[in-house]
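STRUCTURE:
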């Protein structure tokens, strides 16, 4: 079992993949909840895999928590890019204007820990804030160009996968080019690298950043700045990417049938959040109230089925229970 995978530490983490080329650039996606809003009471930063669930949760918070907040702006990118925006080593997205994030929902545990305990990072958290668990994510190998039956083959060494009694590796006869998130930015890229290491297929990569329409060359594996771009690279009809590793939650958000992907639940991501100091006390209070609303759902069981309301929400979005 790989529940202790190399989660992204600080940069995020040193990985076995060697990047041989780089296309710089990253794009943070922001939206208002509700969609009719033109300004927001506060802004939250979420890992790309949690973009759709965060919007649904934000609407629930606005509608059912009793908050006086009228709108939430949800911004999504790789955890590594969001970390840089928070600690000031990268610019905030223009879409947020003069506001700053007051909550981070990361795709790993180590980035919230950096803001919680690191002498440098902790200057950016809200007073009294600490990291909290909100989800466990599941990596998947996904393709719309290669039949599921041809995505992997039994192998030793190999990685454990749902539906397979024996370890498997990517079938390079059919998957001639592979997409993953950049492991230095995206925790799901770290998970993908862990899987490839166990498969004996980790090696040099070409970093394409946000260029999901480009052909992958010269490496077998190409990396992207977040797993949203990774998914777009997999789906783009005119490039040479045949498959890639993303999150099961993305499959769920886009209603993609399980006939297009293979799950690797033993390589789960531990996803934590932390309250960030926006330097605006009202915005900080709104985000703290949002986390309080989440905590209420973690302990509530509205339908008395033994599963908390928050876990019901996670299951409906293709995450594991916490």
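SEQUENCE:
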């Amino acid at each position: 079992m790989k529940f202790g995978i190399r989660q992204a530490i600080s940069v995020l983490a040193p990985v076995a993949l060697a990047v041989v080329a780089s296309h710089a650039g990253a794009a943070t996606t922001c939206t208002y909840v509700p969609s009719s809003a033109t300004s927001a009471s506060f802004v939250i930063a979420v890992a790309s895999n949690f973009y759709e669930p965060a919007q649904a949760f934000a609407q629930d918070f606005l509608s059912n928590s009793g908050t006086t907040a009228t709108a939430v702006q949800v911004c999504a990118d790789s955890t590594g890019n969001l970390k840089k925006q928070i600690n000031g080593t990268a610019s905030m997205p223009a879409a947020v204007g003069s506001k700053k994030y007051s909550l981070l929902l990361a795709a790993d545990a180590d980035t919230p820990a950096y803001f919680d305990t690191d002498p440098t990072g902790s200057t950016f958290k809200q007073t009294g804030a600490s990291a909290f668990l909100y989800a466990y994510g599941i990596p998947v190998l996904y393709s719309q160009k290669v039949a599921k039956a041809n995505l992997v083959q039994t192998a030793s060494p190999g990685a454990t996968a749902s539906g397979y009694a024996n370890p498997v590796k990517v079938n390079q006869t059919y998957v001639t080019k592979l997409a993953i998130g950049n492991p230095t930015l995206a925790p799901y890229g770290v998970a993908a690298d862990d899987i490839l290491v166990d498969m004996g297929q980790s090696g040099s990569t070409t970093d394409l950043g946000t260029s999901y329409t480009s052909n992958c060359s010269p490496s077998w594996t190409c990396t992207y700045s977040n797993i949203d771009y990774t998914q777009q690279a997999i789906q783009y009809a005119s490039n040479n990417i045949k498959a890639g590793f993303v999150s099961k939650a993305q499959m769920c958000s886009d209603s993609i049938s399980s006939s297009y992907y293979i799950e690797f639940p033993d390589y789960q991501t531990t996803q934590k959040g932390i309250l960030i100091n926006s330097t605006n006390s009202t915005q900080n209070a709104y985000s703290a109230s949002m986390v309080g609303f989440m905590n209420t759902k973690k302990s509530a069981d509205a339908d008395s089925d033994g599963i908390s309301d928050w876990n019901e929400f996670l299951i409906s979005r293709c995450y594991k229970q916490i």
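REMARK: DSSP finds eight helices and 15 strands in the chain.
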